[in-house]
Amino acid sequence: MQRIRHSGALLATILATAVAVAPARRAMHTRALRVSGGANATSLAPEAKAGLLDGGGGGSLATRLFGVIRKTVRMTLRLLGFGKDGGDEDTAPATKKKVAAKKKRRSPARASPAQRQAQRISRELTDFVENPPDGCKVSVGKNLNVWIVTMTGAEGTIFAGEKYKLRVSFPADYPTSPPSCYFLEPTPRHPHVYTNGDICLNLLGNGWRPTITVAQLSLSILSMLSSAKTKGIPQDNAVHAASAPGKPQEGWMYHDDSC
After folding, report:
1. What is the domain extent for residue 209?
2. What is the C-alpha to C-alpha distance for residues 221 and 187, in angstroms, rounded to an integer?
3. Domain co-membership, 153 together with 51
4. Is 183 within 8 Å of 199 (Cβ atoms)?
5. Same domain, 222 and 119
6. Are 222 and 154 in contact (CB under 8 A)?
7. What is the pLDDT of residue 8?
8. Which Gene3D superfamilies does this UniProt record tie to the protein (predicted)?
9. Residue 187: pLDDT above 50?
């Protein structure tokens, strides 16, 4: 910008000088016509033609000065970024590269699915630690994709004061799919909790929505424990107990009489 201001001032000075020199140039032109035979002559005298057209190679001082001004104006226009036709074809390639580099820096690359997932999990963890649900506490080791949520039974319930640990891990397509979630031993004796730790809860299956967070899920599980009137195990526990916990709950039936 500083360079452009200086160039503009230089151009203004040159134009002012050109205006001042113009009368002298016209006088020179008139004398040349007289030498060659008047205003109706078809050609200029050789010495006048050389002085008017060579841009400073010969002729009077005024003629040479005008030629210098003409060349300087062209150089100034190029300095300002204009080509022969007023365009920008003479712009330096280095300048174009700098502009392209700036645009590239201003347009950050879009995050990959894995990066977006990591950002989502990190935000959830921060929110959970700073604003934990009542009766829940989270701890995470080196692997940020595996959480341990410690739950404490609410006062006034059959699980009051009892502590249980919930293992939460995130699949590759989280939050499109729900996290893997099950109780570690010892598991609570609840009609919706199998002895292998699996939890019969539709939020872990067809009731899952990507907007649900682990904090909300933990609160729902603790609420499920708190609502129980008696302790017991699911009716089909014998069939399910031998399987590994935490598998996707595809095809599960979420009814009180079938869990």
Report:
1. 113-240
2. 13
3. no
4. yes
5. yes
6. yes
7. 57
8. Ubiquitin Conjugating Enzyme
9. yes
d(CA 151, CA 56): 94
- Cβ–Cβ < 8 Å for 135, 154: yes
The amino acid occupying position 171 is: P
Shared domain for 53 and 81, answered yes or no, is: yes
Looking at the domain assignment, is residue 127 inside a domain? yes
Same-domain pairing of 48 and 102 = yes
Contacts of 173 (CB under 8 A, 6+ apart): none
Exposure on the CB side of residue 47, measured as CA atoms within 13 A: 6
Q: Which residue has the tokens 């730790």?
A: 197
Query: Residue 151's domain is classified under what CATH number?
Result: 3.10.110.10
Question: How many domains does the chain fold into?
Answer: 2
What are residue 181's DSSP bridge partners? Answer: 168
Q: Does 99 share its domain with 183? A: no
Q: Are residues 92 and 158 in the same domain?
A: no
Range with the lowest mean pLDDT among 24-33, 191-200, 203-212? 24-33
**What is the structure's pLDDT at 89?**
47
* Cβ-proximal residues to 96 (8 Å cutoff; 6+ apart), any chain: none
State the pTM of this model: 0.59
**Strand 146-152 relative to strand 163-169, pairing:** antiparallel
CB 164 within 8 A of CB 158: no
- Would you name the residues annotated as active-site residues? 200
Q: Where are the alpha helices (DSSP H) in 107-212?
A: 113-130
Handedness of CA 18, 21, 23, 24 (dihedral sign): negative
Q: Which amino acid is at 37?
A: G
